[in-house]
């Protein structure tokens, strides 16, 4: 069974699971799941976009929530925290960036950024990324 068939068989649940896990400290490749699902079900792009965006945002906000449980004196990536303190919650727009995105979400929780702005900037960034992925795929598919 090839990769596209595997995710096609799992449906949107597989995309949702991949998107959520990819946005936590666990490894994942939601981009591959999104492209595989789009290739298998090209008429369901809106549902795919919403599912991937919302679940990837939920994963990032889970990391944000975990950051709030880290005691304030704990040693965490100082460069990430310094950037968050300097630029604030708008920096969470870039929480989609591999590796540093997880640190941004966790750090934002650690420095106690407010939930609603953190959610909105994270949602905007995640949505922009999946829109770009799906748009690029539609241009490049055979």
Offer a concise description of the structure.
This protein has helices at about 5-20, 30-40, 45-70, 80-85, 100-110, 115-140. The chain is an all-alpha fold. Helix 3 (about 45-70) runs antiparallel to helix 6 (about 115-140).
Structural write-up:
The chain has 142 residues and is mainly α. The protein has one domain. Helix content is 73%, strand content 0%. It has 6 helices and no strands. The chain has helices at 3-22, 30-40, 45-69, 78-87, 100-110, 115-140. It starts with a helix and ends with a helix. The model has no long low-confidence stretch (mean pLDDT 87).
Helix content: over 70%
Averaged pLDDT: 87
Termini Cα gap:
21 Å
Strand content: under 5%
Biggest pleated sheet: none
Oligomer: single chain
Tally of domains: 1
Rg over C-alpha atoms, rounded to the nearest angstrom: 16 Å
Number of helices: 6
Keywords: Membrane, Transmembrane, Transmembrane helix
Protein name: Membrane protein
InterPro entries: DedA_domain
